[in-house]
Amino acid sequence: RGERIMQPFLGINLRKYLFSQVNEDSVIKIQNDIVDSFKLWLPFVEIRDIQVTFKEIDVQSTTLSVSIVFNIKQDPNTTDSVQVEIGE
Fold first, then answer.
1. Which residues are within 8 A (CB) of 33 and not within 5 positions of it... i.e. 6 or more apart?
2. Of 64, 1, 2, which is closest to residue 27 (Cα–Cα)?
């Protein structure tokens, strides 16, 4: 029977960015946080592209979208992607 090990520090808590001022610096910070998290937790993954966008729904609501294209370092010719959207 395998024991599950929780990793409480895994991830970067993207929700914290929903209420911050949106500018190029915040986009770069999110991208850097993602790259750093991948290096720490998924060193066998190579990030090919990261797209971060904020979309204002209305005055009180913002959506944050992150799209990452990546590959496993041992198989550089095969890419995959993941998209995450966070909002209220």
1. 12
2. 64
